[in-house]
Amino acid sequence: xxxxxxxxxxxxxxxxxxxxxxxxxxxxxxxxxxxxxxxxxxxxxxxxxxxxxxxxxxxxxxxxxxxxxxxxxxxxxxxxxxxxxxxxxxxxxxxxxxxxxxxxxxxxxxxxxxxxxxxxxxxxxxxxxxxxxxxxxxxxxxxxxxxxxxxxxxxxxxxxxxxxxxxxxxxxxxxxxxxxxxxxxxxxxxxxxxxxxxxxxxxxxxxxxxxxxxxxxxxxxxxxxxxxxxxxxxxxxxxxxxxxxxxxxxxxxxxxxxxxxxxxxxxxxxxxxxxxxxxxxxxxxxxxxxxxxxxxxxxxxxxxxxxxxxxxxxxxxxxxxxxxxxxxxxxxxxxxxx
Amino acid sequence: xxxxxxxxxxxxxxxxxxxxxxxxxxxxxxxxxxxxxxxxxxxxxxxxxxxxxxxxxxxxxxxxxxxxxxxxxxxxxxxxxxxxxxxxxxxxxxxxxxxxxxxxxxxxxxxxxxxxxxxxxxxxxxxxxxxxxxxxxxxxxxxxxxxxxxxxxxxxxxxxxxxxxxxxxxxxxxxxxxxxxxxxxxxxxxxxxxxxxxxxxxxxxxxxxxxxxxxxxxxxxxxxxxxxxxxxxxxxxxxxxxxxxxxxxxxxxxxxxxxxxxxxxxxxxxxxxxxxxxxxxxxxxxxxxxxxxxxxxxxxxxxxxxxxxxxxxxxxxxxxxxxxxxxxxxxxxxxxxx
DNA sequence: TTGAAAGCGCTAACAC
DNA sequence: GTGTTAGCGCTTTCAA
Lengths: 338, 338
Fold this sequence. Notes:
Two copies of one chain form a homodimer. By secondary structure, chain A is an alpha/beta fold. Chain A folds into three domains: 5-56, Orthogonal Bundle (434 Repressor (Amino-terminal Domain)); 61-160 and 294-323, Response regulator (Rossmann fold), CATH 3.40.50.2300; 162-292, Rossmann fold (3-Layer(aba) Sandwich). Chain A has helices spanning 5-12, 16-23, 30-43, 49-56, 72-87, 101-113, 132-137, 162-175, 191-207, 223-234, 248-260, 294-309, and strands at residues 61-66, 91-96, 118-121, 141-144, 157-160, 181-185, 216-218, 242-245, 270-275, 288-291, 319-322, 325-327. In chain A, the strands form two sheets. In chain A, strands 2-1-3-4-5-11 form a six-stranded parallel beta sheet, with helices on both faces. In chain A, strands 7-6-8-9-10-12 form a six-stranded mixed beta sheet, sandwiched between helices. In chain A, strand 8, helix 11 (248-260) and strand 9 (270-275) form a beta-alpha-beta unit. The longest helix of chain A is centred in the middle third of the chain and has 17 residues, at 191-207. Chain A starts with a helix and ends in an 11-residue tail after the last strand. The model of chain A has no long low-confidence stretch (mean pLDDT 91). The first copy, chain A, binds a DNA duplex through helix 2 and helix 4.
């Protein structure tokens, strides 16, 4: 049987309340403090957070439900959130639902039974039905990276301004004189994919340049997908003079395909990447890209959750939209004869 | 206030014990079962696992402490473990200790206070001191990927036979006639690094070939590290005829460096990779590599934990060693004039 | 099969 | 500052 406060009480001769108060930062006579500390050490006492939770009604646990763990964007956001959350005393239970709506729903109810204080979700099921039980139970929910139309106004979210991000990137290439611009997207139907496509189209219509359907490819947000998409784009009768790739993994795949084909960047082809700079590191020392502020996304999400959890906080369920920043590197060049 | 069993009891007119039994799979009269289900649905009852845990002494929660989340080997192992564990009703709390022994120690005590049923650790602190509190508290611990000398015989572990893996890879290259073989390792001092180096050396002494010190490079287990190491190896007065790269991220970096340098594989240089095959996917369609059985590692770890947790199970704290398998791809070739 | 009651380890009034 | 006590939501004898 584990050591409990009762044991400490017995050994020290103090009352339970005193010991409890000590562990909750209350003021205790110095002599008794020493008594408690000594007893705790010699008995090997570890406070039981479960029992405490039962009483206090909060578990200091946050559930995080994500579609996939094998994606640097997701893992880097999780790391950032976890750092802040743990610093504030919260544990994080991560549930990878394997891009499966059934598992996603299950994960939510699982976490609810575990009495998590809050739920952070990068949603997969676009209906948002999986979150209904949480909302009904009054458990705070924060969405990351994607909003859910059916839940708009009910659940706050932290997202990138995806339309603007893609528009920025595309506009830059257009300004450089490119007219034939390949776009490598994630799968259709995803919130981010659709937004980024919209941004691309917006930029084109802003320049009054017609869009070539065949230039738009879906790379599934994976390295392989990007690789394949690049090969297809290169094989077109009129291959693009510039490529805009909309996430990290796909950019990696695209770069590999280009190297394999012996294509020089930016002499033969301009490339615009996406996502976080430092992950590309020294390998693509100065890739032109749309920088997604992932640290800020993770931070804001955690902060928002913390705010919802604070006794005062009942923040309005708005959407925090963060802006991407264009980084002008050396992988793009001005087209001489547009 | 949340809905509790008491509410169900009140509504149905049944006793607490009956309802509890129903939720624990006991047999209840069909009529009452329906009564309970209806009441639960209309009230929105969710069983409180916290209260249950207080009584039953187990939380169905496993703590996982890892050095870093941004590494495909680690995330893929976590995903595999989590799948099995969750399937058995266990939640997984992942703590990324950022390769910081202080944080690692803190993570363990944090999880202990949370009353996790077990602890899975890919250890960073080689002294293993951070795990002492868990061992003293009688909480089952399983190590993954690395063993801890000071804790040998006290804590079971699941690891790759790293020496043999590296020996296999190196021996294959030697058999192909290579004598000048570059080795790209992780940082010195790590368990896996030292084992893999040992394997390399073993193979050389088996062939009675002297080892060139300058061929051994540390790439920090990162993509950038691999990239840099490859550049350095290529710049040697007598560059190697083959490269053995000992993890996924570094292999990626090495491949990029080689492509950049316009080196053909395997015509100009043979390359042997490491880690899981399918992550390389179609991009390096047939890379020769030492395949690490990561799924098996994750599975065995989870299984071992489950076994320790089962009422019967008090498995001996041995080490499960899994073997790597050499995959003969097309990135290596026999040297004609050795 | 069902119900009454005790108690898991802790917190929080409240009285001292 | 300290001790007494009730009770968080559940499980689990034990008797009916």
